[in-house]
Amino acid sequence: MDHATTSTPALELRGLTKRYDDGFLALEDFDLTVPAGEFFGLLGPNGAGKTTLISAVCNLIRTTGGEIRIFGHDHRNADARRLIGLAEQDINLDRFLDVEETLLYHGGYYGMEPARARRRAKEMMEIFDLSGKAKTRAPKLSGGMRRRLLIARALMHEPPLLILDEPTAGVDFELRIDLWQYIRRLHGEGTTVLLTTHYLEEAEELCAEIALIRGGQLLARDSADGLRSHYGVETLADVYVKAMAAAA
Ligand code: ATP
Predict the structure, then answer these.
(1) Contact indicator for 70, 32 with CB cutoff of 8 Å
(2) Which of 148, 170, 177, 218 has the maximal Cβ count within 10 Å?
(3) Mean pLDDT over residues 93-99, rounded?
(4) Ligand 1 centre and the CA of 21: distance in Å?
(5) What is the pLDDT of residues 148-203, one digit of tens each?
(6) ABC transporter domain location, by residue (predicted)?
(7) How many Å lie between the centroid of ligand 1 and the Cα of residue 17?
């Protein structure tokens, strides 16, 4: 099935609430729909709830209330998890695996046939310029290569929804531009992308729509142009400042 052309949203959150065990309310009655094929950005200050939202979507944490659907599937189903590729904020690569093994193990985890996994790993290494490092272990890769491997790994099982949690945090300008190109290409091929970032110019450059979040609540959601006109300001930075101040 071509997920990007169906009318079923890639992601649907209804009344999503997350209260951590210590009582902290990180997400409150959160509604969000991300259409299939969208390039969608989540913007908000540290502690806004972005990673909590992503962890809930990927079923890495238990939700307190509400509903999450991935291309129409309940997020707790194995089917739903297979539809998502997640590149987490932390570079959580296994230090004992080389680049190729990292990709193949991930393919195995998702039940890919070995021959298909090998083909896909080769393709991923070519796309992300890692072919020359196939036999290099993670600790011997540069920071930029690790970031690229993280995204390549997330894409191994060909998920129609790619979630990138601050993919360019701490990345130099050149690599950021490179990563933008890779991600744009994937999006152009039909992948739905959900991106969190603290770089406003990144959200502006890449995302068709942006959700502003603070204190576990959705403040606004629109295109960059729509947000500027709604808040009556010239730049996305001014939108951000105004929206966050109003919510404080
Ligand atoms: P950042 O931009 O800094 O990555 P974020 O928007 O991703 O922030 P979250 O990591 O989702 O924010 O955190 C939201 C809130 O939930 C924060 O106040 C955080 O301290 C709290 N929180 C996160 N994990 C836990 C936990 N396991 N137990 C209690 N509180 C938590």
Answers:
(1) no
(2) 148
(3) 95
(4) 12
(5) 999 999 999 999 999 999 988 877 888 888 889 889 998 999 999 999 999 999 99
(6) 11-240
(7) 13
Is 51 close to ligand 1, i.e. is its CB under 6 Å away? Answer: yes
49 lines ligand 1 (CB under 6 A): yes
**What pLDDT is stored for residue 6 in this prediction?**
57
Q: If you measure from the C-alpha of residue 18 to the centroid of ligand 1, how many angstroms do you get, rounded to a whole number? A: 11
Q: Whose CA is nearest to atom 1 of ligand 1?
A: 46
CATH of 1-83+159-248, picked from 3.40.50.720, 3.40.50.300, 2.30.30.40, 3.30.420.150, is: 3.40.50.300
Specify whether the CB–CB gap between 240 and 214 falls below 8 A.
no
pTM, to two decimals? 0.92
User: Ligand 1: distance of its center to the CA of 52 in Å?
Assistant: 6
The closest residue, in CA terms, to atom 26 on ligand 1 is: 20
